[in-house]
Amino acid sequence: MEQRYLEDILNAVANKEKNVSQALDELKNLPYEDIGYANIDQHRNIRTGQGEVLFGEGKTPAQTAGIVEHMYKNNDRIMVTRANTEHFEAVKKVVPDAVYHEASRIIIIGDLIEESKRKGNVAVVTAGTSDIPIAEEAAISLEFFGNRADRIFDVGVAGIHRLFDRVDRIREADAVIVIAGMEGALASVVGGLVSAPVVACPTSIGYGASLGGLAALLSMLNSCANGVGVVNIDNGYGAACLANKIVAAKG
Question: How far is the C-alpha of 176 from the C-alpha of 189, rounded, in Å?
Answer without folding.
Answer: 12
